[in-house]
Amino acid sequence: MQSERLGLLVQELKALQEEDPKLVEWNGVLDDGWMLGKRIEQLVLDEQLVLDEQLVLDEQLVLDEQLVLDEQLVLDEQLVLDEQLVLDEQLVLDEQLVLDEQLVLDEQLVLDEQLVLDEQLVLDEQLVLDEQLVLDEQLVLDEQLVLDEQLVLDEQLV
Questions:
Q1: CA–CA dist 135, 143 (Å, integer)
Q2: What SS3 state is found at 158?
Q3: Which of 8, 67, 80, 158 is the most exposed place for a label (fewest CB within 10 A)?
Q4: Per-residue pLDDT tens digits for 86-122
Q5: Mean pLDDT highest for which of 19-28, 34-43, 145-154?
Q6: What is the CA radius of gyration of the chain?
Q7: How far apart are CA 124 and CA 122, in angstroms?
Q8: Kind and range of the H or E run holding 26
Q9: Model pTM?
């Protein structure tokens, strides 16, 4: 970019020398006093303006890139926070599921124990009833035997 501008400067100086034969070369520099100085000054100012504009553009590019990086950082941090929130919510759901499953298992255990106790009670009552029946039958048989023996004795006496 600068080499192009210097090339243009040299071309302009040569054009000025062709337009004004009074221009003479002095120590390798064309000299026509005030006019040539003004032209060179304008070219330097133009070059400075281009450099200033380039500096502004470069600074704007740096600022834009920094803004993009800052926005990306914010987005990345938000993504991390969102992912952490999802993981936290999943952990809470998993813990709730474990607690719910434990509650179901505990309730099932209580129900199973109650069923066992109920069955044991039924068996115990059935055993008591069976024993009572056996005793009642034995009593009936004993009474029948006593009556039979009494009848036999009564018949013998007669």
A1: 12
A2: coil
A3: 158
A4: 999 999 999 999 999 999 999 999 999 999 999 999 9
A5: 145-154
A6: 59
A7: 5
A8: strand 24-26
A9: 0.41
